[in-house]
């Protein structure tokens, strides 16, 4: 099965283990990048990048949990999979409570790890598509004049043209002109499509 083109970042201070895990993922078709610390990862990535992360929980410097918190603070919503030693299990459970995607105990089952990475990459791809869609809608909203945006807000509230005209102190004919231009700029054909587009920008919830 072909793998998503998104990168799997691996963070582990144990060079031998990190190289082994990178080789394993590479050999199964996953694009990868390795980092020897959480700080190295944070210095090498862009907030605009979509990817997934496989990381050790216990590391010098920033721990896995602290890395997860820092990524969230920077707006990075990557799915994070933790690799843990047996003694780190309580920490891994805490990581899940803080929003980690999954965790695997050493020695991990390769098939289970691949399945977890596949799910994480699918989620990352979904998040990427969602972000791109939001960016397109944002750009369309920015192209509206102030009056067109006022008309949009009232249309989304379910107001008919006469009520919009009364609210804005303009004629119904002028409302129709602004409404038509607004719908063209938003690239929608119906009020339902317009509402869906606006709600996709207003919705700040994290994808599951």
TrEMBL record:
Keywords: DNA-binding, Phosphoprotein, Transcription, Transcription regulation, Two-component regulatory system
InterPro entries tied to this protein: CheY-like_superfamily (IPR011006), Sig_transdc_resp-reg_C-effctor (IPR016032), Sig_transdc_resp-reg_receiver (IPR001789), Tscrpt_reg_LuxR_C (IPR000792), WH-like_DNA-bd_sf (IPR036388)
Transmembrane domains' residue ranges: none
Keyword Transmembrane helix found: no
Modified residue annotations for 4-aspartylphosphate: 56
A GO BP annotation: regulation of DNA-templated transcription
Domain Response regulatory: residue ranges: 7-121
Domain HTH luxR-type residues, every copy: 137-202
CDD domains assigned: LuxR_C_like (cd06170), REC_FixJ (cd17537)
Any GO molecular function: DNA binding
Gene3D superfamilies: 3.40.50.2300, Winged helix-like DNA-binding domain superfamily/Winged helix DNA-binding domain (1.10.10.10)
Pfam families noted in UniProt: GerE, Response_reg
Keyword Methyltransferase carried by entry: no
Protein name: Response regulator transcription factor
Native source species: Crenobacter intestini
